[in-house]
Design a protein that fits this description.
Helices cover about 30% and strands about 30% of the residues. By secondary structure, the protein is α+β, with helices and mostly antiparallel strands. Among the domains are: about 60 residues, Beta Barrel (OB fold (Dihydrolipoamide Acetyltransferase, E2P)); about 45 residues, no CATH class. The structure holds zinc ion (ZN). The site of zinc ion has 7 residues, from α5.
Length: about 170
């Protein structure tokens, strides 16, 4: 789902796992270009990972089964899906708690990769924010355009034009 550096040598990679939900795992020496694990860890990779837990997770082995993004690039299909998929990963990083498995989310992500269609409304609903019942937090209107992470509220297009909202994701 994402990666950040830790210290001079290591990286911390974020995964959405079937059994543990969203987790962060340290990759020892992961900043080195010669790291054996790095090629398996691109954004949107589907992997089998071996993890060791001692204060935090450390990734000891990983095998890339496929890359959702590379599959789309290689196929002659709609490239816009890559944007939608990265948006979904960002959304899930923001919205799913660390270490809380959710098989519903897991299976939906599998479905997204298979069908190459990422609809945030489905994930919002699973996580308790049904767009169909939503009203704009600014004006009470029903023409919802975006979701704001910090306050976990919906916002309509008119209010988006009038105000500056930080940290939002467009739904439509
Ligand atoms: Zn509004």
């Amino acid at each position: 789902m994402g990666v950040r550096t830790q210290g001079e040598r290591d990286r911390v990679v974020e995964f959405y796992t079937k059994n543990l939900g969203r987790i962060e795992a340290k990759v020892m020496g992961g900043r080195k270009i010669t790291s054996k694990l790095a090629p398996h860890l691109g954004m949107g990779s589907v992997v089998e990972a071996r993890l060791v837990f001692k204060n935090q997770f450390t990734l000891t082995d990983v095998l890339q089964k496929r890359s959702v993004i590379r599959d789309v690039l290689e196929a002659d299909s709609e490239k816009r899906f890559i944007f939608d998929f990265l948006k979904l990963l960002y959304f899930l990083r923001k919205m799913t708690p660390i270490g809380l498995p959710d098989l519903n989310v897991w299976h939906r992500v599998e479905e997204v990769a298979l069908r190459r269609s990422a609809d945030l409304k489905i994930f919002l609903k699973i996580l308790g924010h049904d767009v169909r019942l939503a009203k704009c937090d600014g004006c009470g209107g029903e023409k919802i355009r975006a979701f704001q992470f910090e306050d976990q509220v919906f916002v309509c297009g008119d209010c988006l034009n009038k105000n500056v909202f930080n940290d939002i994701v467009y739904i439509h």
